[in-house]
Design brief:
Radius of gyration of chain B: 20 Å
Distance between the termini of chain B: 31 Å
Low-confidence stretches of chain B: none
Number of strands of chain A: 11
Distance between the termini of chain A: 25 Å
Number of domains of chain B: 1
Mean pLDDT of chain B: 91
Low-confidence stretches of chain A: none
CATH superfamily of the largest domain in chain A: P-loop containing nucleotide triphosphate hydrolases
Largest sheet of chain B: none
Shape of chain B: globular
Order of helices and strands of chain A: EEEHEEEHEHHHEHEHEEHH
Oligomer: heterodimer
CATH architecture of the largest domain in chain A: 3-Layer(aba) Sandwich
Number of domains of chain A: 2
Largest interface: A-B, 35 and 32 residues
Largest sheet of chain A: 6 strands, mixed
Radius of gyration of chain A: 18 Å
Shape of chain A: globular
Strand content of chain B: under 5%
Number of helices of chain A: 9
Structural class of chain B: mainly alpha
Structural class of chain A: alpha/beta
C-alpha cells in the first residue's frame, strides 16, 4: 500500500497510509473505532476506490488488474456473513467457483474437516451459531489458498477456546501457505499472541509500528492495551 | 471472461430456487393465472363480438408474449435482489468476479427461470385455448428475441437503480412492465394513441412486435423493416443498460456505497 488516501467530502478517513506485507507475516491493524481500519481493508479488497495512492498485490495494481489481484486474495469479516439461505456446502461451492479453485470438491471436504463444519454441511448457513458462521467465513476465506488474507475481527464472536484454535489455524496457514495476513482486532492479548508486527492507526494515519511484544516498552507502557489506550486518547 | 465464475452466479440462483417452493411457484403461477384469465376473456369476446377475427391469437398471444418479457426482466432483477436481500454485496464484489461475468450470470439465471414460465404458458394456451404459435410463422423468432433482449435491458437497468438508490428502491422496479405496457401497444394499435404517446412508443422495441403480431393475425405479413428496427433498438437498449450498470457500479466503488450498502446513502 503506497500513500493511500480516502476522503469523503471534507472527511478524511485514511490519510497517507503506506505499508508492506510479506509472505508468512501476520500484521495487526489496530486502532480505535473510526481510525480507518475497515476503510483500508475495503480499499485493498477493491470495493472502495482510494482518493489517491496505489495498492499492489503480488505486484498487480488493483486499480488496473483487479481480477488477477483479487484471485490471490480473500477475506473474512464479522460484518460480512455468507448468505444464510444457502447451505454450508453450497456457499463453499459457489465461492469456490467464483475464485476458480482447482479440484474444488476435494478442497471443500478438506476445509469442512479443518474447520469442523462436516456435520453442518447440508444446513442453511443462517441457522448456524455466530461462532459456526465465523468458522464458515474463515473456510471461505481459505478456499483459494490466498497469498493475502484480510481478517476483520475474525475471532470477535468466538469463545476463548475456539478463538485460540482459530488463531493457531491461521498461524499455521500463514506459515505453510506462504500467505501474508492483515488482521484487525480489539483483543490486544490476541494481537500479541499471533501478530509478527502491528500498525497502530488513529485518525487515518499510522502512528506507531513494530513488534507487538516490544513496542509497548519502547513507548514506556507495560502492555499493548495500555499503549493502544494512550494512542486512542491522543 | 471466466465461464466458471459466471457459472458460480447461476449455480447460486439454482440452489436458491430449487431449495425453495416460494421461489419455484412464482416462476409459473402468475403466468398460468394470466393465461387462464385471458383465455376465457378471449373466448367470451369471440362469442359476443362481430369483429370477424379470432381474439385468441391477438389478446392471448399478446398477453403470453408480454408475460414472457416480464418474466425475463423480473428474472434478472430477482437474481440481483437475492444478493441485496442476503446482504451479500461485500462477499460478491470483493472476489475476482468482473461486472460482465456477474451480469452474464444474472442473464443466464433469467433465461433458465423465464423458460419455465414460457413453457407453462405455451402448454396452457395451446392445449386449453387452441392458440397455435405456428400462426405467427418464422416471425415468432424475432418476436421472442426482441422481447427477451428488452427484458434483459430493463432487468439490468432495474438492478442498476437498486444498486444506486438502495434496497428500498426495489418498489420502483417491479411495476416497470406495467408502466411500459401502455406505450408498447400490447392490446391496441399504436394509431389508437395520441401522437405524443406514439413518439414514445417508437423508441420502445416491443411496440414493433405487437404491431406485427396484429398484422399477421389480420392476414398480412410481418414487416422485415419493423422487426429489424425492433431488434436494433433492443440491442441498443441492452448495451445502454449494461453501460449504466457499469457506471453505477464504478460510482458505488468510488463512494463506498457497496461497502456500506444497507446505509442507503444517496449522494
Amino acid at each position: 500500500m503506497d500513500n493511500l488516501h480516502k476522503r469523503y467530502g471534507s472527511t478524511i478517513a485514511v490519510d497517507g497510509i503506506s505499508f508492506q506485507l510479506a509472505r508468512n507475516e501476520i500484521v495487526g491493524l489496530l486502532g480505535p473505532n473510526g481510525a480507518g481500519k475497515t476503510t483500508t481493508i475495503n480499499m485493498i479488497l477493491g470495493v472502495l476506490e482510494p482518493t489517491s495512492g496505489a495498492i499492489r498485490i503480488e505486484g498487480l495494481d488493483i486499480s488496473k488488474q483487479r481480477s488477477r489481484a483479487l484471485d490471490c486474495t480473500n477475506f473474512a469479516a464479522v460484518y460480512a456473513p455468507l448468505p444464510g439461505n444457502l447451505t454450508v456446502y453450497q456457499n463453499l461451492r459457489v465461492f469456490g467457483l467464483i475464485y476458480g479453485v482447482k479440484d474444488l470438491p476435494k478442497r471443500i471436504e478438506a476445509l469442512l474437516r479443518e474447520f469442523e463444519l462436516e456435520r453442518f454441511r447440508d444446513m442453511k448457513s443462517g441457522v448456524l451459531s455466530s461462532g459456526e458462521q465465523t468458522r464458515l467465513c474463515l473456510a471461505k476465506a481459505m478456499l483459494n489458498q490466498p497469498h493475502l488474507l484480510l481478517l476483520d475481527e475474525p475471532t470477535a464472536s468466538l469463545d476463548p477456546a475456539t478463538a485460540q484454535e482459530i488463531r493457531a489455524k491461521i498461524r499455521h496457514f500463514a506459515d505453510h501457505r506462504r500467505c501474508g495476513v492483515l488482521w484487525t482486532s480489539h483483543n490486544m492479548y490476541e494481537v500479541e499472541d499471533v501478530c509478527d508486527r502491528v500498525l497502530l492507526l488513529a485518525r487515518g494515519k499510522i502512528l506507531l509500528e513494530g513488534d507487538p511484544k516490544t513496542l509497548p516498552h519502547q513507548h514506556g507502557k507495560q502492555t499493548l492495551e495500555e499503549l493502544f489506550i494512550a494512542v486512542a486518547r491522543e | 471472461m471466466t465461464p466458471g465464475r459466471t457459472f458460480g452466479i447461476v449455480l447460486r440462483h439454482f440452489y436458491l430456487v430449487s431449495g425453495s417452493p416460494a421461489r419455484v411457484l412464482p416462476l409459473f403461477a402468475w403466468v398460468a393465472i394470466d393465461m387462464v384469465l385471458w383465455g376465457f376473456i378471449t373466448r367470451y369476446l369471440n362469442t359476443v363480438s362481430r369483429a370477424g377475427f379470432d381474439f385468441v391469437p391477438i389478446f392471448l398471444g399478446a398477453v403470453l408474449l408480454w408475460d414472457f418479457f416480464t418474466r425475463v426482466m423480473h428474472g434478472v432483477t430477482m437474481a440481483f435482489m437475492e444478493d441485496v436481500w442476503s446482504r451479500n454485496f461485500l462477499n460478491i464484489f470483493a472476489t475476482p468476479l468482473s461486472i460482465s461475468e456477474y451480469v452474464s450470470g444474472l442473464v443466464l439465471s433469467s433465461i433458465a427461470t423465464s423458460s419455465v414460465g414460457l413453457l407453462v404458458m405455451l402448454l396452457l394456451a395451446s392445449t386449453i385455448f387452441g392458440l397455435s404459435f405456428f400462426a405467427y410463422g418464422l416471425a415468432l423468432v424475432p418476436f421472442l428475441l426482441v422481447l427477451f433482449l428488452f427484458g434483459i435491458a430493463l432487468g439490468v437497468l432495474g438492478a442498476a437503480i437498486v444498486l444506486r438508490f438502495g434496497p428500498a428502491s426495489e418498489w420502483f422496479i417491479w411495476p416497470i412492465p406495467a408502466l411500459v405496457s401502455p406505450f408498447a401497444g400490447v392490446f391496441y394499435p399504436l394509431s389508437t394513441l395520441p401522437s405524443w404517446m406514439q413518439h414514445i412508443c417508437r423508441a420502445l422495441p416491443p411496440s414493433y412486435i405487437f404491431e406485427n403480431v396484429r398484422a399477421i393475425v389480420a392476414g398480412r405479413t410481418a414487416s422485415t423493416y419493423d422487426l429489424g428496427v425492433g431488434i436494433a433498438l433492443a440491442i441498443l437498449d441492452v448495451a445502454l443498460a449494461c453501460w449504466v450498470f457499469a457506471r453505477v457500479y464504478r460510482h458505488s466503488v468510488r463512494t463506498g456505497l457497496i461497502a456500506r450498502y444497507s446505509a442507503e446513502t444517496v449522494t
